[in-house]
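Sat 14:20. Reprocessing the chain from the morning session after the first attempt stalled halfway. Input below, unchanged.
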Amino acid sequence: MVTFDVLVTCALGALLVAGCAAEVPPPPETVTAEVPVMTPVYCNVQIPAKPALPLASLTPDSVPADTVRAYAASVALLKAAVVERDSLLRSCQAPGSQTDDDNSAEAPR
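Finished this time. Tokens:
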């Protein structure tokens, strides 16, 4: 009669022989892919000073006509500051990155 030890030894031997016959898959290949990465464009521009708005000089006792004039003058100054800021930003763009939907070419009103 076959004992348990002999049976385990035969099974273990069969597994070892079967393990040697198994084909080992080849290691994965390394693939290199070059991906373009956006790099920021830095430029040295002088940041314009904040404009002194005529609204700052108004007092609670200011005449309504002066208030309206101060608001109109402030709007004109702020529009000019926006145009200056946009031109500075445009000067920092990389060549060829200008957009067609640029509507800052309008003169301030």
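The chain has two helices and no strands.
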